[in-house]
Design goal:
disordered C terminus; alpha/beta; globular; 10 helices
């Protein structure tokens, strides 16, 4: 297997192998909420989650799927040349609704010109039998990427972030998806830098997701955002954000520990500048990527390859 970055299987490599073109994601709001917010399991959401349910970059959250896609396409029109679009249901929990409603909005997105598939952000505990049937049906003729928010497997961290489901539910969800929906591309979200977590804890979470059968990994650094419960602990000095090189060091080890058949979809996230409190060094994404490239080169992690082409 040959990778454009010379080292690992990037999202760019993966999508080009499927579609032969550059893929652009347009973030959408499905109108769903989350069992951590509506009282089904808890209130307030995960401790790090903003009021938009991690959908801070969605162009128009209260409009139809078609209008959201139209505005999203207009926003990225300067980037799109011969590329294609994946409709990304990003905010909150996008399988947490009646199957009839979900089927309607999923097909609305798939019917939009230029859309070649869906990315659906959700939780492992929101995949009941009817939802699995729907996803199985969709995946027979369409590319479906299902993104599961795991974040960590350290038990104390799971409780601290108010995730409200056990690790075994994640394993069960991945197993069922592999058995019932083998064409679905399963991606697992991880957060590095959670309070009280060591480098070993972060790498253990990655190893857990890989062994469970995740096809892809998304790694984010913990961001402290306005309007989150995490902010109170940060302001009270209960933890500090990771420094840039500290984060790069763990990333290098994480990538080295990831099998080359597992797609690495993200190595860094960028919180919205208007609500970002810490770490502020993440605010300039281009600078972060340049610094990351330089760090990996100087430490001979990527043999001098440039990362910027993949983000």
């Amino acid at each position: 297997m040959s990778f454009s970055n010379g080292f690992y299987y990037s999202a760019n490599d993966f999508y080009r192998s499927l579609f032969g073109k550059k893929v652009y994601k347009i973030a959408l709001s499905s109108g769903c909420t989350c069992p951590n917010r509506d009282g089904s399991k808890a209130y307030g959401g995960c401790i790090f989650c903003s009021s938009s349910g991690s959908g801070d970059f969605i162009q128009s959250q209260n409009e139809s799927i078609e209008m959201q896609l139209e505005k999203g396409r207009e926003f990225i029109s300067s980037k799109i040349k011969d590329g294609v679009i994946i409709a990304y249901f990003q905010s909150y929990t996008n399988t947490y609704a009646k199957p009839e409603y979900l089927k309607k909005i999923y097909f609305q997105a798939l019917s939009f010109p230029g859309v070649v598939g869906l990315a659906i952000g959700t939780r492992p505990d929101c995949l009941d039998e009817k939802i699995i049937e729907l996803l199985s049906e969709l995946s027979k003729n369409h590319f479906i990427q299902l993104e599961l928010g795991l974040q960590t497997v350290k038990e104390s961290s799971v409780k601290y972030i108010n995730r409200c489901y056990e690790n075994c539910e994640y394993e069960k969800a991945v197993k069922i998806l592999k058995e019932r929906c083998p064409k679905i591309h399963v991606v697992t979200h991880l957060i590095f830098g959670l309070p009280g977590e060591s480098e070993g804890d972060m790498l253990s979470s990655l190893d857990y997701a890989v062994k469970a059968g995740s096809d892809g990994i998304k790694i984010s650094l913990l961001h402290v955002l306005k309007g989150t419960r995490l902010l109170t602990d940060f302001e009270n000095g209960k933890f500090k954000s990771m420094e840039m090189e500290e984060y790069f060091s763990v990333l290098g080890k994480a990538i080295s520990n990831t099998p080359q058949n597992v797609v690495i979809h993200r190595l860094t996230g960028d919180g919205p500048k208007k609500i970002l409190i810490s770490p502020l060094w993440t605010a300039d994404k281009k600078k972060v990527l340049n610094s990351m490239t330089r760090y990996f080169r100087e430490n001979q992690i990527f043999q001098g390859k440039n990362l910027l082409a993949k983000f």
